[in-house]
Specification:
about 550 residues; alpha+beta; 3-stranded antiparallel sheet; 23 helices; 12 strands; about 55% helix; globular
Length: about 550
């Protein structure tokens, strides 16, 4: 990065000197072209050297197997990765082609080498035993900082250890269990909102439906708003009501940040420029929107922290202790972090929890509903289990004063075995985060391969989760019952990587899992979801999380 900045500075200096001497009086367009050439020609020369010489004759990884897909001379395998129906499909095929190798070597933009680990031994070293020897790449870290803040997710080494230790009380089993009523309340609010759409005769679907009382509803924004409401109430003790206020500027800010873009040649060019200049540097419309949205989120986070700190200060002054409702994640974070976490670290972690805490579960829930619409037999079986545990739901109708989920407890949720199997299978087959990246901070031996400092490693969660050598010949099929009889290979913690493993595993896993289950109980117990166009495979795209390229419009009606 330092050499890149130095190159840009040198190019600028040369252009300035040229403007004052050789090109005195030249147009700005000519000078701009000169600056561009001075900046890009050396870089393109390095790229050509990498393509023609280094990768073929000098790379320490030239003995590792490569994909059968031919790489582009400039984009490498990048175009394969972003032209697939399901994120991770290409890497899955490459890993399946090379079952004996701990790594597969492929190329990113500018034909830069990437290693995708396949073996359990390699994954264990990278994620567990030598996890702090593999850090987030600079490009990934800066991209995440733009989207989810610069909190725990981007911390490294001692800073990561310190922050994770301080944050653990907020994600303890007891605390997450105590948040179950919040998950239930907001999940039922989503159920009532959808019921309101079905009951409202003024809301008419744009196209014909097959049965009375059925409507086509885009569930993506509704689920997204609900998970925002959950993270606000459970995480920060604040009522947000995003489900009723979809035009709120904070809701729009998050929607802008996570909106999927169409994959075009211009988009590919932008990605290449971001690899060179860094994320968010080029003043495109998208980058301007993301930065403006981040400013809105940062201001909200700062104001919320100040409000909480003031309340804690007043409570301490008058000798009051926090009530149960005050024991949200942010209050615990401020109380536990006094003197150990700076206001900057608290704000960044708040932003991280805001983004990651709602976006991943929103993605997981949308994917689960899509899978249920394609597998009606699974949906019926799941609904039967839910109603067996909550018989009030079978007879509940809109307008009833009673809350059918009032009896839903943490213990009851965890007793639903098929629900548990379904959730794990959905998260296995299409994980909300399909890939995570690392960069070697030092030379490290990994399953017989010396991984040199600076090497980029891409752990393809979506591919590992579907390897036939681990999950059987039906690994690419949706089958919740597989979890009743697991093979020894599938039981390994390095076969199911949706939440990662090791010191950098998802700190909010239990929070997300219980939230996910509550949402499904509230929705499947009451409604039936069907495909909008039977047999249609909806395209999924991924930048940070996996999302539907064109929303999730499903047929919805009351379940019998």
């Amino acid at each position: 990065m330092a050499s890149k900045k130095f190159s840009i500075s040198c190019a600028g200096m040369v252009v300035y000197v040229a403007y004052k001497t050789v090109f005195k009086g030249a147009s700005l367009g000519t000078l701009g072209l000169l600056w561009f050439l001075l900046l890009t020609v050396p870089w393109l020369s390095r790229a050509l050297f990498r393509v023609l010489v280094y990768n073929n004759f000098l790379s320490p990884y030239r003995h590792l197997p490569q994909p059968s897909d031919r790489p582009h001379w400039f984009f490498g395998h990048f175009h394969h990765l972003h032209n697939e129906q399901l994120p991770g499909n290409s890497q899955l095929r490459w890993l399946e082609e090379n079952p004996e190798s701990p790594f597969v070597r492929y190329y990113g933009i500018f034909r830069r080498e990437r290693l995708a680990p396949r073996s359990h031994a390699a994954l264990q070293t990278i994620l567990q035993t030598a996890s702090y020897s593999f850090v987030k790449p600079d490009l990934t870290r800066k991209t995440l900082a733009l989207i989810v803040g610069d909190g725990l997710i981007n911390a490294e080494a001692d800073s990561h250890r310190r922050q994770r230790k301080l944050l653990m009380p907020a994600f303890s089993f007891g605390h997450i269990k105590s948040l179950t009523p919040v998950f239930v309340e907001k999940s039922f609010a989503l159920s009532k909102h959808i019921a309101g759409i079905l009951d409202n005769d003024a809301v008419v679907s744009d196209e014909k439906v097959s049965s009375p009382g059925e409507k086509i509803i885009d569930l993506d924004p509704l689920v997204h708003a609900t998970t925002l409401d959950i993270i606000f109430k459970a995480g920060f003790g604040t009522e947000f009501n995003a489900l009723q206020n979809e035009d709120d500027k904070l809701v729009q800010a998050y929607r802008n940040v996570f909106t999927m873009r169409k994959i075009t040649n211009w988009w590919r060019f932008e990605m290449a420029m971001e690899v060179f200049f860094g994320p968010g540097v080029i003043p495109t419309k998208r980058n301007k929107t993301v930065k403006a949205s981040k400013r809105i989120i940062e201001k909200f986070a700062t104001d919320l922290i100040r409000e909480k700190q003031q309340k804690q200060k007043i409570a301490t002054t008058f000798g009051k202790t926090s009530s149960t409702t005050d024991k949200d994640i942010l209050n615990i974070l401020i109380a536990e972090g006094k003197g150990a976490l700076t206001d900057h670290e608290i704000r960044n972690n708040l932003m991280t929890f805001l983004a990651a805490g709602h976006e991943t579960t929103s993605s997981a829930t949308a994917i689960a509903l899509y899978l249920l619409s394609k597998h009606p037999e699974v949906q019926s079986k799941l609904r039967a289990e839910i109603r067996e545990h909550i018989p009030e739901y079978a007879s509940y109708r809109s307008g009833d004063n009673n809350d059918p989920l009032a009896s839903l407890t943490y213990e009851k949720i965890e007793s639903m075995k098929y629900l548990n199997n379904f959730c794990r299978e959905s998260l296995r087959l299409i994980p909300p985060v399909p890939v995570t990246s690392r960069q070697a901070a030092e030379d490290t031996m990994v399953d017989g391969v010396l991984v040199k400092k600076g090497t980029l490693i891409f752990i393809v969660i979506a591919a590992i989760n579907q390897l036939k050598s681990l999950w059987g010949e039906d690994a690419d099929k949706f089958n919740p019952d597989r979890w009743n009889n697991m093979s020894a290979e599938a039981l390994s913690p390095y076969s199911f990587l949706t939440f990662i493993q090791g010191p950098r595993s998802c700190i909010g896993r239990r929070f997300s899992e219980i939230e996910f289950k509550c949402l499904l109980i509230a929705l499947i117990g009451r409604f039936e979801f069907g495909e909008r166009n039977p047999g249609e495979e909806l395209a999924l795209r991924s930048m940070v999380t996996t999302k539907f390229a064109n929303g999730l419009s499903l047929k919805v009606k009351y379940a019998e």
